[in-house]
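From the pipeline queue, job 12 of 40. The input is one protein chain; the requested action is below.

Action: predict structure.
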Amino acid sequence: VGLSSTNVLDIGVGGGSYPTIRFLTNSTLALSIDESQNATFAGDVTLQVGDANDATLYFNNTSTYKGFVRYNTGTNLFSVNTNGNTRFKIDGNGAATFTGNITVDTGGTSRISIDGNNTSGDDGNLQLYGHTSAASRAYLTINNGVSSGGQNWYVGALRGSNSFAIGRGSDYGTNTDFYINSSGNATFAGSVTSTNAGGQLIIKSGNTEYFRIHNNDLRTPSGIAMHLQTNGSTNALILGTDQSATFAGNVTVTGTIIE
């Protein structure tokens, strides 16, 4: 069927039980529909609606729609709907909202990056890593101005040893400053400082307190004696609840004993 000298509708091209339908514009294939109802467009597909209207592309089965892609020309909101619910939205400012889980799986090392758009290289970036090579680990890196003399930091966990660490570097396990192993034991690489005037270090087992450091005082709760041990677990000095002092070894005095 010739619509004009260059625009043609062909029926019966390609053979088979049912013919393929082709639409040609300017003597060039624009659209073809085969016997399985598959449609192929050679150019862009445009949904054109008026201002402040929805341009929607629906995905149906034989009875009802299962999802759609929609763009509102008034609010500039783009949305994706699956199973009758909106799952993903991007507004006119580029803010994205997901209503479900977000999964990144590259089959190897996966990464989510948040770019601070700093003019000094990668400064101000956050990156969330998931590693499957070597020992599986997941960690967050924080670039805090490395190119201008700042420091990279990481916070993460290692699956092989069930450990958690915080350190200075761009990868888990480099320059570790704080480490918790699978038994819950914590190790600090540097000093631990409390800037609070009333700050305390409290040592407990479960809910039972055994020892605390408060300002310049070493304290035990009521009814608990204080044991100072050397050579692993040998009592050297016991301070009783009656304020008595018991030494396990010799007592040497280099100064004056005052009663």
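Job complete. The chain has a mean pLDDT of 81.
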